[in-house]
Amino acid sequence: MTFPYLFELPKIIDSRGNLSVVENHKEIPFDIQRVFWIYDVPTNILRGGHAHPNSEQILIAVHGRFSVTVDNGKKHETFMLDKPNQGLFIGNNIWREMSDFSDGAVCLVLASKPYDPTGYIRNYDDFLNS
Ligand code: T46
């Protein structure tokens, strides 16, 4: 199982500003089946607190910054996302928590599966035993 990792996305710079881009199976190691974004998060709010047995994701801080703590049951690591040309890959069966959202932060999420409310493990002990 691949532990979550940060990676650089293309950044095309010209005098009019920058542009970043991703494509399925190029920068993104799966077919994107869903895109959602999280924004207007109040200060000191913790989001996430779950794992997905069957949904891979890429998180991108398209504006502002936030932290993501990931945990595979054996080790955990906190990543600070603060660049629109950087993605955090989170594979299956990884517990994640998002915190420390800056004012105006926007977390873009590219997911490998459609939304399925039954596809969440929300209890940490169940996650460890899964
Ligand atoms: C994840 C992290 C990074 C939908 O109706 N459709 C959707 O596709 C999603 C993602 C959510 N929702 C509804 C379900 C809840 O009523 O939106 C509400 C908030 O979702 P949730 O509490 O799961 O949000 P987060 O920020 O805790 O977690 C989300 C994703 O759910 C999750 O897959 O990995 O972002």
Structure commentary:
This protein has 130 residues and is mainly beta. It is 5% helix and 42% strand. The protein has one helix and eleven strands; from the N terminus they run βββββββββββα. It has a five-stranded antiparallel beta sheet with strand order 1-9-6-11-4, with no helix packed on it. A four-stranded antiparallel beta sheet has the order 5-10-7-8, with no helix packed on it. The radius of gyration is 15 Å and the shape is globular. The model has no long low-confidence stretch (mean pLDDT 97). Bound molecules: dTDP-4-keto-6-deoxyglucose.
Query: Which compounds are bound in this model?
Result: dTDP-4-keto-6-deoxyglucose
Number of DSSP strands?
11
Q: Give the strand order of the largest sheet, numbering strands 1, 2, ... along the chain.
A: 1-9-6-11-4
Hey, roughly how much beta strand do the residues contain? 35-45%
Order of helices and strands: EEEEEEEEEEEH
Instruction: Classify the helix fraction into a percent range.
Output: under 10%
**What is the straight-line distance between the termini?**
14 Å
Regions with pLDDT < 50 over 5+ consecutive residues?
none
Question: How would you sum up the global shape?
Answer: globular
Largest sheet: 5 strands, antiparallel
Count of helix runs:
1
- Compute the gyration radius: what is it? 15 Å
Structure classification: mainly beta
